[in-house]
Amino acid sequence: MAKPPSIMGAVLGVVLLLAGGPPTASAQDSVTREQADTLIREIRELRRAIESLRAPRAGAERPPDEKVRVDLTGVNVLGRADAPVTLVEFTDLECPYCRAFHVGTFERLKRDYIDTGKVRFISRDFPLDFHPNARPAAVAVRCAGEQGKFWEMRHVVTLNATGLGPTLYDRLAGELGLDAGRFTACLTADRHRAEIDRDIAAATKAGVTGTPSFVLGATTPGPAVEGLRIVGAQPFPVFEARIKALLGER
Question: For the chain, which terminal residue's Cβ has fewer other Cβ atoms within 10 angstroms, N or C?
């Protein structure tokens, strides 16, 4: 009777097969190419399952909104700085639900409330530990911001959540007319790490555990906003109802 492949042998075989090198005899006995492909598929499915559990989903039942306070020191603002309502987004640039929010809800929010001077929008980074490309993407966006293209880069990077990496950033830098040398030097220096860590700390203090999450409140003097925490890529009417309430509209 054949022995089942050992776990260590299977893992070793997968690694060798992925690396393209010739497997050892013991690895050949432990795992076949078909078994390796099966293991890879299962790993990918497991990662998707974990992601779906940890990231708030559009249309999912929302937890009750909770009032929280968020520090806004040194943030980038889209819209009028003195707009009566402030919407803070905590996002992971590799998160598919964050992309879904920007493809649908955000476009209407921008058209109806940000561009009309009623809402100022602030986007902050909360890269999740199982998205290895999220933090480098956040750095790339901030490097573009050094040349006045923060929002342009952030928008396109968000829409390309499944294709993040140096090739994308270099292409976008060219399309946005950035100085390539300055942009590359910024990426290499990684000098925006402290800013991203500050965003993470602010999110954690506000009780954020997944992305996208938001804080929506009335704009007040000073570098902070107190408002309701909204969890998940919620549809436009959810945000609109709360914005109208803050504006005193019906």
Answer: N
Hey, how many other C-beta atoms are within 10 angstroms of the C-beta on 159? 12
> ∠ CA 181-186-190 to the nearest 5 degrees?
150
Please, which residues have CB within 8 angstroms of residue 7's CB and are 6 or more apart in sequence? none
227 bridge partner residues: 68
Helices 33-54 and 7-19, axial angle in degrees (round to 10): 100
pLDDT at 183: 97
Provide the Cα torsion 52, 200, 209, 67; round to 10°. -140
In the block, residue with structure tokens 């997968």: 14
Which of 38-52, 109-123, 171-185 has the weakest average pLDDT?
A: 38-52
Please report, for residues 46, 137, 234, the alpha-carbon distance to residue 126 in angstroms, rounded to integers and kept in the order given: 22, 11, 18
